[in-house]
Request: fold
Amino acid sequence: MSIKNIRLEVMQFLDSKVDEFVDKFLIPIETIWQPSDFLPDAQSDTFFEEVKEIQEIAKELPYDFWVAMVGDTITEEALPTYESWLMDVEGIDNVERNGWSRWIRQWTSEENRHGDLLNKYLYLSGRINMREVEITTQHLIADGFDIGTGRDPYKNFVYTSFQELATYVSHNRVSQIAKEYGDKKLSKVCKLIAGDEMRHHHAYCEFVDQIFKVDPSEMMLAFQYMMKQKITMPALFLRESGEKIGVAFEQFSNSAQKLGVYTANDYVEIMQKLIDRWQIDKIGNLSDEAEKARDYLMKLPGRMAKISERLVLPDENYIFKWVQPALVR
Reply:
């Protein structure tokens, strides 16, 4: 049997458990929080006073903070790309509407709230050139992305396990910074979003756990493949109006590193957490090739940590079109 057919067989086997995964890791629509729960009510007599309060506090938050907020928001807003990508993965069938496609739709519906909430908060803050943000978002959706997984479900689940945790780290750090500057409302917003990301991280880790039980060698090789090629961020093709792909993402990454929102050390720590979470050192019944992959994975965080120590960030600060230069603090 071919590797592709084995993967399909495994996905079909796990399909029967998807309802269990939905109940365990997702929250019913009627009970989960919605963006309007944390935004000024436009129907309220106090709407303008609440907006003014948001804008007064926003003035105290530094330029780099707003760059991180915009980057997080745009990444969340590019959700249509992520859903369409995952719907094309082997074993996920949206035509027959199997269990896996139901998971993707419901996961997407939860994630969609994040961009809605952050976008509205940016708009109300008065600190952001929303048209430039909107152009960047449209570019990111139009350009799409290639995360190096192809249609392989094993590789895609490694990617989502990693990426959901990385997104948790970013939102959680932004929440901490907002709190330090006295913006308790924004801090709560980002912390709630971070909580969703952590739940989703546990879900995708569970999928990988299940695959390790029935196809350990191929799952190990898929994990090694993704770590070898490195996890690319969803916003890799980020660009501003009139710019080429690549420039904005590199500058945004530098800014996030300087602010401590998401760093090279975080990347290494997430890798180690996945190795520990899946108990890579204890998995048995591996082929010789998979055993070598395991050895590679166990040593990789240490090697990557040494490389991250040598990382040098540029001194100059890049001025994004998203935040007006006059507002730099």
